[in-house]
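Hi D.,

Good news: the full-assembly prediction came through. Inputs first.
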Amino acid sequence: MATFIAMVLSAVLTNNFITVQTLGICPFLGVSKKTSSALGMGVAVTVVMALAAAVTWPIYEYVMVPLNFAFLEIIVFIFIIASLVQMLEKIIQKLSPSLYNAMGVYLPLITTNCAVLGVCELVIDKTAMAGLLGGAAVNFGWAVLYSLFAGLGFTLIMVIMSGMREKLNNVKIAKYLNGFPISMVTASLICMAFMVFTYIA
Amino acid sequence: MTAKEFFKSTAFKCIAVLLSIVLICGILLTLCNALLYVTDDERTARAVAKVFPDEEVTFEEDEVDENYAETANYRVEQAFTLTGEREGQYLLSIIGKNGYNSGTVTCWVVALTEDNAFAGLEKLVVTGNEKQSFINKIGDSDIQAVIDGQNEDGFTAYSSSGISTGATFSLGAIANAMNGAKDYVESVYCGVVNPYADWTANTNITSATTYTVENGVVTYNIITAANSPAPSITIEIVVGADKTITSFTTKSDTTHSWSTENVYTDFAGKGADFFAGVIGENGDISNNSNYAANGIAIGATRSNYLLLSAALFATANYDRAVAQYAEGGAE
Amino acid sequence: MNKYKKITLDGIIFNNPTFMLVLGTCPTLGLISSALPALEMGLAVIVILTLSNMIISALRKLIPNEVRIPCYIVVIATLVTLIRMVLDKFLPDVYEALGNLLALIVVNCIILGRAEAFANKHTVLESAVDGIANGIGFTMALTVMGIICEFIGSGSLFGFKIMDFSVGMFSTPAGAFIVFGLSICAFTAIIDAFQRARRVKANRLARENMLDDGAQAEEVKA
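Then the structure:
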């Protein structure tokens, strides 16, 4: 239980993907203009992250390492992620057209989202994971749970960011600061706020 | 669709091109992997080269002796015997435990020996840590000061050495690693036998400890290991025939807070069960609540842990001490 | 020759992938806390971008349109794996400093972006020039921001300590975001001023030409 709490705090707050590891910045800056779309993107990324880790971890651990082709990890992982995203898109389209309309536009973008490949690379790194889990041995369950909560941390920041950007719409911004620069300054403020959490761990 | 049509279709072309690209890339990578693969030996050599940046060092890797590899304070991960110009020196990869927030510090230690006896450390290089947020405050000079501050009881990171870094507990874990290197090199390479190796509850008890038996009363002169930042402590413990403590006196320099001796008069009349209960199963120094519940002073937890370990050792081994002393086995 | 000059200038300045198109933000933000890893990352990207551009341009007639993206990804992933192996073997320090970000070059939008926008429509030579130019643009942006962040954040340059004063925040992502944002702002302002000056000059020339033409026409009439 203690490991679980430590892992959740680490994944969501102290080692947040956006504010600390700076992964998944493209959708963070690109799809955070409105809260609804930010939430949609966040949820989509979370789902893909958890699924991708759930597929890549066992393949890496039980197939690639024993058969000595761990060096192909990048190609294999990116292929798995791309096919997962495609499959998810088709399934959502079949099951719930309304959800597809809400979420579908973000799905193809996720393949080239470094948060997804990043989490897959992270959970197979034994030493990094031991640090995040406070020394507990990494297994399938932890890998998937960590990815899930890392995705939730990502969603959290997306939503906060979109809230701030909606407020930004109401003010007049200097010409050259408008657009990406002001978003990044805003993001910097969020990072500073989240830096506080590193002191509790 | 006939087979012929299929072979002419775009779908076939797509599949064929994609598959052949994947295949070519896979074969290319496999070839390169065979050429460029970094073996474990090479990684070890690299790690060693980082410890000795300006010289070529030859070494042989030794199997870590599991009997001496792990205690509550350290764990030896890898051990190397240096050869050539550095004959008689040993390189150990050690994890020092009990740092800040019960975290650890991983480091390389170069240990020197002379005439088959431990002769100090040449250097210590920190390579990693867990939970040691302030470890950056520790400079090379601080580590060197701890190495230079070695006395007969080992290395201490605090108190007598007067080193102030702002990361006392991380430095404590480093000192634990140093003491671990000393103990490991002494027992594995110098053949120093710990007479108490097969005694129970021997955590934190050094081989310098002695005892005498008279009329069924055992008098121990226990010298504990250091538990940084607490230094090594010398304690005289008298255990009576009822296997409980009759007197408990700390003998070493008593300028530190743990020397509030009146607290430990409470030890009198207590047996092994009591001390085992206070220390708890893992002997964890973070077990503060247990200490407080039994009326043991808090605020010098690590010193207290050493005192309790000594008391437990003395009471739990009463029978063995009496028996071995009768055989003339004691020194 | 003018063609190559235009490709080069576009890649380095007018369509600078980092400042003007804001692509490849993840490695940028992750690495600009110090200058040296930023420069190393930039060099790795130059190599991969040039090679991937050349390979994709060479294969552009062969690859069917429907599966082009997976093909590009395979090529890029292979190159990234290769460069990881080479670095691990010969420059282990660099390999360690870049860590996981090296693997994430695969999803760096600059590389896939150049493959999609340029390499599949141009010759091998043009693509190579484009790859080098964009790579240099990326590297310059990263190094400049790395120098700024490292100087303010830890008072050093490329690892050499030069002053004791430092604002620790600038070696964290918070500082990286601020420096990145303000750098984009400064870069666009400078380019804009430059463009405007050029346009003014071009207009003046055009007007003078027109007057000259007019004068000539008058003369002809006369």
